[in-house]
Amino acid sequence: MSASQFGSRFVITSFGESHGTALGVVIDGCPAGVRFDSEILKKELERRRPGHHGSGQIVSGRQEADAPEVLSGVFEEKTLGTPIAIIVRNQDARSQDYKEIKNSPRAGHADDMWRNKFGHSDHRGGGRSSGRETVSRVMAGAVAQMLLKETSPKTRVMGYASQIGPFSLTPDERVQVPSKNIDSFQARFPSNRDVEVAELLKSAQESGDSYGGVAEILIENPPAYLGQPVFHKLKSDLAQAFLSVGATNGFELGLGFESAEVKGTEFHQGTQEAYGGIRGGISTGESILLKVSFKPTSSILDVAKKGRHDPCIVTRAIPVLEAMTWLVLADHWLWSKTDRI
After folding, report:
1. What is the pTM of this model?
2. I need a labelling partner for 11 at 20 to 30 A (CA). Which of 24, 42, 101, 195 fits?
3. Is 128 flagged in the annotation as binding?
4. 295: annotated binding-site residue?
5. Domain map of the chain by residue range?
6. Per-residue pLDDT tens digits for 151-183
7. Strands, E, within the chain: which ranges?
8. Using CA atoms, how far apart are residues 285 and 279, in angstroms rounded to an integer?
9. Is residue 56 classed as helix, strand or coil in its secondary structure?
10. Is 298 annotated as a binding-site member?
11. pLDDT tens digits for 215-227?
């Protein structure tokens, strides 16, 4: 399996560069007969685009239509069981902005790493190391979501920012998260302080600075008994899925690192908060809580002021993390069908 593929049963192949002709994905392993809901695909792509629900001042200025073109695998609004290929064409690339970095790599970016590793690389917009690659993941995740909506209709995946820079959700705010429309908040930070967070990011963008943060993914009513020990535990595949996203640098399940401070007699009370909805690498059917941390955006100072960059990755990454979650769930749901006779 190549490094641009993900999944064992629901297998996706991501392709394309930031300033190439198009980016796309080939999905192999999706069963036939799944209702192909184009509105889900369009909605998820729109959520990933810069400027969702008026957040234009705190995200990249690049404006791509991201209009999906389904090339194969779908007929009469149903999947055929054959490979599904979907692309979006690049229309707002400004390749001239990246001439300088061809020989002068940007600090904190992967420019020199890719060039030194491969000897020949596409420096325009970061090439394939660009966050724009995630559009392929979102398209694939939308199809995975279509599959789960038919096979496990009560399953819900919700992502949100729990921390951006110095701002963190309070315990009361965290309890209320499931009832919130996360996309109605500019920074996807479900709090009355979301406006302050947006102002912080706007100021950072203007001054050429950036912030990191923490995103959380809540999976409600996941299918039970997903996970393939020993090397494909559900938690390990989720961790790999999340940490494959650019700028991520940490992953937690349930109480995560907090559990180091808790005595076993307190921890092992059978609560889903402690275990995070996964035991033995297998889903229990209870809600699953996952956390992933992001470093501050690498584009700072003059690089940020001259280009079109996000002052914080977390806000834009949430639809991507949700897509990766759907992909893992779909993959493991299909895998579970062969667990026993």
Report:
1. 0.92
2. 42
3. yes
4. yes
5. 5-336
6. 999 999 999 999 999 999 999 999 999 999 999
7. 5-6, 11-16, 22-28, 69-72, 74-75, 78-79, 84-89, 156-164, 167-168, 213-220, 248-253, 278-279, 282-283, 288-294
8. 10
9. helix
10. yes
11. 999 999 999 999 9
